[in-house]
Specification:
Structural class: mainly alpha
Helix content: 55-70%
Number of helices: 6
Distance between the termini: 28 Å
Largest sheet: none
Order of helices and strands: HHHHHH
Strand content: under 5%
Shape: flat
Length: 152
């Protein structure tokens, strides 16, 4: 079974995305003296890459949980609890862009660290809505069209 529009990857080896990334290749393509300079204090660029690797691994853990729940929700698991689709090595750059965007949205909307961005993103809209409907007694009766949010 093939699902070309679903992000597919080897979640346990997600850091390979960065290991083979253009940024890392470009870093090592610099003249030796330059990349050694950037690797040492105060820049410590290799430590930055390691932190990015760790973040990718953490994001992969989140993505694996989302995938597992999604597969279970749509009955795409077999009796051993394993998914029935070979997801390894199939991700395209557009799939990765969608995954990055989704992870950023999860971070912004559900983490305590995203509170500042939530206030900046949603605060003005919420203030305008509060102002526009200030005199409406039954706030639960208000319906607001949100383009792109789908129909439910």
């Amino acid at each position: 079974m093939s699902h070309p529009n679903v992000a597919k990857n080897d979640w346990n080896g997600a850091s390979s995305i960065l290991t083979d990334s253009e940024e890392r290749r470009n870093f090592y393509a610099l003249p030796s003296a330059e990349w050694q300079l950037l690797s040492a204090p105060p820049f410590n660029f290799l430590k930055t890459l390691e932190r990015v690797d760790d973040a990718i691994d953490a994001n992969a853990d989140i993505a694996a949980e989302i995938l597992e729940i999604g597969l279970e929700s749509f009955g795409l698991r077999n009796e051993h609890g394993l998914n029935q689709i070979d997801w390894h090595g199939e991700a395209k750059s557009s799939d990765l862009d969608k995954a990055r965007s989704t992870i950023r949205q999860f971070y912004r909307d559900w983490s305590s660290e995203g509170a500042t961005e939530r206030r900046a993103s949603y605060g003005p809209v919420m203030r305008d809505i509060d102002g526009a409907f200030a005199k409406v007694a039954d706030k639960g009766a208000i319906k607001i069209l949100v383009p792109g949010a789908g129909k439910y």
